[in-house]
Design a protein that fits this description.
homodimer, alpha+beta, 3-stranded mixed sheet, 22% strand, globular, DNA-binding
DNA sequence: TTTGCTGCAAATGCTTTGCATGTAG
DNA sequence: CTACATGCAAAGCATTTGCAGCAAA
């Protein structure tokens, strides 16, 4: 389990690391470092923001989490589940949804090939206004 | 010409704005604010970095330039030429190429529709290693 | 003249780091 | 006991902003 994941990453098993990994697992959302910080505070844990950044960066290096730089300053992290996907981000409420489209993936490879690029990674984010809950119909600039 | 573009944006025609717009036009590249700053310094102009950020932001608002947040801190700007395209970025040499793929565009719309998102914008960046000049074959992590 | 612009430096927001102390192995 | 972790506060980096002086219209 998590204990093992952390060891495999070559890191010592400590409370902050366990807690953070736990949070990333429970919230199958996309969390910023501050989000994690707030969640930890609420559950009474006293872990510094600096540590959270450090740990999340280590987890990223170890391939345990993914970091995304959507528009608007804060990076967000999600647990790496081994299933590639891209993102839809609501510019009104911040909601993030995931999707995967084989046709798009294939086209990207073709494009890279055509331009003689050896593809390493890609980032596809669709920004829009979602139609769920609070966001429904509320639209302005 | 540029004079008019600036007026149409509701801005006064000043030397800094003219110079910056000129640079964006000459270099059909993707420039960071600092790039613009360096170019201005070299040509003897004495324009503050703050002004460059301010002007580029105003140009962005006016639709004269586009701002991209590729990985790695600095935002880059390019002249808006009215032709939509996405980007290939070389993670070794920083080279940026543009492409446009109708199939991908269409798929994105379908995806947005399926998720009940009213699409406003999207960002597709393919990161890889280009095969041109300095970059050829040079590959490491 | 009036309104808007610029340079400068200080402020900001997110993230990283140095260091002394603490703790897993 | 030793190497690595943590908390804290300070530093870093890209970008924004306040303000007094300047310039376009």
């Amino acid at each position: 389990m998590n204990n093992q994941k952390i060891k495999n990453a070559g890191l010592k098993v400590t409370l902050p690391r366990l807690k953070i990994l736990e949070i990333m697992e429970k919230n199958n959302k996309h969390l910023s470092a501050e989000d994690v910080y707030r969640i930890l505070m609420k559950s009474g844990e006293d872990i510094g923001l600096g540590t959270i950044y450090r740990v999340l960066t280590q987890f990223e290096t170890a391939g345990l989490v993914l970091r995304h730089n959507f528009e608007g300053g804060q990076a967000v992290f999600e647990l790496e589940r081994g299933v590639h996907h891209d993102h839809l981000v609501c510019i009104k409420c911040g909601k993030v949804e995931e999707f995967m489209d084989d046709t798009i993936e294939k086209c990207q490879n073709k494009v890279a090939q055509k331009h003689h690029f050896k593809i390493k990674d890609h980032s596809l984010v669709i920004y829009g206004i979602c139609n769920n809950g609070d966001c429904k119909g509320i639209e302005d600039e």
